[in-house]
Amino acid sequence: MTSLRAEYPLYLAGQAAQPNADLVVTDKFTGEPATRVALADAATIDAGIAAAHAAEAPMRGLAAYERQAVLAHCVRRFTERADELAYALCIEAGKPIRDSRGEVGRLIDTFRIAAEESVRLTGEVQPLDISARAKGYLGIWKRVPIGACSFISPFNFPLNLAAHKVAPALSVGCPFVLKPASRTPLGAIIIGEVLAETDLPPGAFSILPAKRDGADLFTTDPRLKLLSFTGSPAVGWDLKARAGKKKVTLELGGNAAVIVDRDADLADAVARVVFGAFYQSGQSCIGVQRIIVHANIYAAFRDQLVAATKALIAGNPLDEDTFIGPMIDIGEADRLAGWIDAAVAAGATLLSGGQRDGTMLAATLLEGVPRSADLYAQEAFGPVAILSSFTRFDDALAEVNDSAFGLQAGVFTRDLFSMMKAWDVLDVGGVVINDVPSYRVDNMPYGGVKDSGLGREGVRFAMEDMTEIRNLVIRRQAGDVAFAPIPTTE
C-alpha cells in the first residue's frame, strides 16, 4: 500500500509553491493528522486570479489537438498513479477503498470524455433569409471560451467533482482557479501535479486550498467570468448573490427519493436501494434518502431491506470488505444522530442502526418519519434513509415532489406508461428507471432544479456553460466586390 508525503504544495499559476504547511489533513477514520498542505492567503488567491486572467488569450489560442493532448496526458498519468490517488482519497475522505478506486476510475473517465469532446466543439451555419428583408444574409455561429473560471469543489467526491470542473475548462480553453475543500485537498493537488507536467500556458491553472473565510475572491472578483460551486444550498445561494456579473452554476444536493412500485423485481430493488442509501456512508448529493414503496409489497421490501442493511460491514475504510466508513467529521455525525433522535421523538420507528461511535454512524433505517422532521425535509448527507408506502402511483409522484430539492429521482417499475408519467411529472433534473437516483454516468447531463441548483454538469454540458456563442452575419449583395468572380488570365 502506498503512503502520503509529509507535506503537499499548492499550485500558483501552474507552479508548485510551499509558502507554508498550515493546513492539517486528518485521517478521517482515526482522527489523527495524516499530512500537511500549503494554505493560500488572500494575496496568493489574488495572484492566481491575475494569472488566470492574463492566460485567457494564450488558452484561447490553443488548437483543439493541443487541448486534447493535455487531457490525454492526464488520463495516462492518472491511470499510472491510480493506487496513490485511491489511497489518498481513502485517508483524506474516509471513503472505503473500493469506492475510492471507483472514484479514481470516474476521474479517468471524465478526463477521457473531455479529451474526446475537445475536438468536437462545433458551431452552426444558420440561413437567415426567413423573410424578404433578410434575403442575401447568412449567419454562422461558434463557441468561444468564456474566460477565467472559478471552481469550488466539495469534500465528498474530491477527485471526480473537481474533474467535472477542470476537465471541461481545459477542453474548451478556459484558465481557472480551483479551491478544493479544505478537509480533502489532496486529490486536487495531485491533479495539479499532473497538469504541471504539461505544456499549458503560464497561469492556466492554480489550485489553492484556502479557508472559507479567506476565499471571498473566488466569488467576488470581477476578472472571473464564471463561478462553478458544488456544496450546500445555504452557501451556494449566498455565493450567487455576491458573484456580481459572472455566470454562476450551482450543484447543491438534495434529499433524493426512490419509488418502488408493485411490479418491481423485489430482490433487485432491495440490492440497489441498500447500495444507493449507504454507499460512501450516505455522503452523496444523490444518495437515497426517501424510499416510497407500494403498499402491496411494503412489508416484504422493508424486511429484506432491513436485513440487507444490518449485513453491511462498517469499519476501517482501508479494509477491502468495509462498506460503511466514517462521516467526514464529528460535527456532521453528531448533527445527523440528533436528527435521528428527533424523528424518533416525533413518532418515527427505528428499524435498524441509530448508534454512533465518534464519526462512525451505523447504517440507519426509519419509518413513519413526519414530513416536518429534518430527516424528511432536509438533506441528511449521511447513512440514513426513511421508508413510507403508497397505493396510487400519482400519490408517490406527489411525495417525491414534496421537497424543496430536485436533483434526481429513481423509479422501479416495468410499466412503460408509469415510466413516461414519472419523466413528465417529477420536478427533478433526472429520472432513473429501475435503479436508484444515486446512479450517474459522467457524460450525461447532471444537475437539479429548485434548491438543488442551476446549470448542468456532464462534460459536454459543462463545456456549454464555459463557452459563449459568437455570431457572424454575412450580407451577400449582387455586384458586391467581395463576392464578385475573381478574374483569370485564361
Question: Would you give an account of this structure?
Answer:
The protein folds into 2 domains: 7-252 and 453-471, Aldehyde Dehydrogenase, Chain A, domain 1, CATH 3.40.605; 257-433, Aldehyde Dehydrogenase, Chain A, domain 2. It has 16 helices and 25 strands. The mean pLDDT is 96. Strands 15-18-19-14-13-21-22 form a 7-stranded mixed beta sheet, with helices on both faces. α7 links the parallel β9 and β10 (205-207). The protein starts with 6 loop residues before the first strand and ends in a 15-residue tail after the last strand. It is an alpha/beta fold and 490 residues long.
Number of strands: 25
Counting helices, strands and paired strands, the structural category is alpha/beta
Largest sheet, order of strands side by side?
15-18-19-14-13-21-22
The H-level CATH homologous superfamily of the largest domain, spelled out, is: Aldehyde Dehydrogenase, Chain A, domain 1
Distance between the termini: 77 Å
The CATH class assignment of the largest domain is Alpha Beta
Radius of gyration: 25 Å
What is the mean pLDDT? 96
CATH topology category name of the largest domain = Aldehyde Dehydrogenase, Chain A, domain 1
Spatial shape: globular
Q: Ranges with pLDDT <50 over ≥5 residues?
A: none
- How many domain units? 2
Please give the share of residues in helix.
25-40%
CATH architecture of the largest domain: 3-Layer(aba) Sandwich
Strand content: 15-25%
The biggest sheet amounts to: 7 strands, mixed
- Helix count, DSSP H or I runs of 4 or more residues: 16
